[in-house]
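Researcher: Sequence recovery benchmark, item below. Answer with residues only.
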C-alpha cells in the first residue's frame, strides 16, 4: 500500500465511510477507490477534485 493509499483509507475509515460511499461522493468507481487504497494507482486527482468541491478535503 502506498502512503497516499494508506492516507485515503484511514481518512475514509475515520469518516465511517465505505469505499462505495466514497466512490459515489467522488463520482468514481468503487474499483478505482480500492486500487488507490492498495497503491496500484496514484492518480488521486479524480478523487480529490470532486471531494474538494464538496468540502470533504481539509
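Model:
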Amino acid at each position: 500500500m502506498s502512503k497516499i493509499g494508506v492516507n485515503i483509507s484511514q481518512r475514509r475509515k475515520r469518516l465511517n465511510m465505505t469505499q462505495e460511499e466514497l466512490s459515489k461522493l467522488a463520482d468514481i468507481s468503487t474499483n478505482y477507490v480500492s486500487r488507490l487504497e492498495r497503491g496500484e494507482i496514484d492518480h488521486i486527482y479524480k478523487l480529490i477534485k470532486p471531494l474538494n468541491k464538496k468540502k470533504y478535503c481539509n
